[in-house]
Amino acid sequence: MSASPQDLVRPEIMALSGYHVPPAAGMIKLDAMENPYHLPEALRDVVAEVAYGVSLNRYPDASAAKLKSTLRETMQIPEACGLVLGNGSDELIQIVTMALAKPGATILSIEPSFVMYRMIATFCGARYVGVPLREDFSLDFGALLTAVERENPAVIFIAYPNNPSGNLFAAEDIEALIKAAPGLVVIDEAYTPFAGKSFMPRLAEFKNLIVMRTLSKLGLAALRLGYMVGAKEWMDEFEKLRLPYNINSLTQEIAARVLESGAALQAQAETIVAERTRVYHELAGMQGVKVFRSQANFLLLRVPDAPMAFNGLKARQILVKNLHGAHPILDNCLRVTIGTPAENDAFLNVLSELL
Ligand code: PMP
Q1: Using an 8 Å Cβ cutoff, are 230 and 82 in contact?
Q2: Nearest CA residue ID for atom 1, ligand 1
């Protein structure tokens, strides 16, 4: 064989750098918006029992029927809507984008936001347009509407609350956007457990609205389960692109049982929200730090020298996300996930030493 990757791989893929996940063994891990808590002991026993009973020799239930009905009951999914499951919500972003990536089709989002909207558009050969947020990370609604009219996007992705800024855009702006959009609007509610605001109850009002969720931030990141909800005729098309066994049997069984046990994860989310308030005030009181209000399980902050602070924290075994260089308005910004009180204290102490 004489061909090299340059000869055969699409140039836009050759030009990509892959999504980088830094090694984290032995670190206080505050970089990936994980819930810092284990499941409560009683639920871990349930998980062990469920895992014991799973037939690992068989393929999973391709329709994930039991898990879907548990999700419908526990997540207030409107009965008339369709429901599609993904191996993480990033797989759902991929499914939606793959389906809509006709030649010349445009995917639109705001920037800075979740980088996968852009990356997956590139994977699928779609055109991507990012509309900048204002310097304070608020939505420039006028600019967004102008871009929507000009670009005629097949789909608009909006993270609600937004990552990496953590803020929640005004519901009236999102509603006006959904009404003005010529195509679909995906409201990505990955951080809804910490914000308490959702478009799920409003799905019946808008035929072009999709609500996307994940269990990752709620405490089940290892299971990789995302779901999206919207008008049945749209979900039926997306379902065709879902690989038949994308949700493995352990995920199906464990997620259903944990969700049935209801309040445990939501209680952890409430603890995280209380810690977010405490850490926010601690950071706001630090000389040289600008911290932004967040409705998610992380905080965005600006420091005098983010690369130095990032490296200093890392040297003390604390991993946060360095966003310096990712976007002009993220200059000298770090993103820190809310951890346990002890982890947060360790972060605050080391950061204050570094300033
Ligand atoms: N949407 C947003 C806004 C995110 O920040 C993330 C994860 N960082 C995801 C989706 C993907 O989550 P997952 O694939 O774990 O469901």
Answers
A1: yes
A2: 190
Choose one of 260, 288, 315: the last residue of a domain: 260
Is there a single domain that holds both residue 97 and residue 196? yes
Q: If you measure from the C-alpha of residue 32 to the centroid of ligand 1, how many angstroms do you get, rounded to a whole number?
A: 9
Four-point Cα dihedral 325, 326, 327, 330, nearest 10:
-70
Say how far residue 44 (Cα) sits from the centre of its chain. Answer: 25
**Distance, CA of 70 to CA of 310 (rounded, Å):** 41
Q: Helix, strand, or coil here: 187?
A: strand
Average pLDDT, stretch 43-61?
A: 97
Cα(89) to ligand 1 centroid in Å equals: 6
Q: What is the pTM of this model?
A: 0.97
- List the domain range (segments joined by +) for residue 234: 55-260
In which band, very low, low, confident or very high, does the pLDDT at 18 lie, cut at 50, 70 and 90? Answer: confident
Same domain? For 176 and 299 the reply is: no
Of 242, 260, 278, the residue at which a domain comes to its end is 260
**Residue 113 CA, closest ligand 1 atom number:** 3
Q: Mean pLDDT, to the nearest integer, of 114-120?
A: 97
d(CA 218, CA 71): 14
Q: Report which of 12, 240, 242, 236 is spatially closest to residue 126, judged by C-alpha positions.
A: 12
Instruction: Kindly give, in sequence order, each residue whose CB lies less than 8 Å from that of residue 175, ignoring residues fewer than 6 positions away.
Output: 202
8 A C-beta contact, residue 241 and residue 99: yes
165 lines ligand 1 (CB under 6 A): no
Looking at the domain assignment, is residue 184 inside a domain? yes
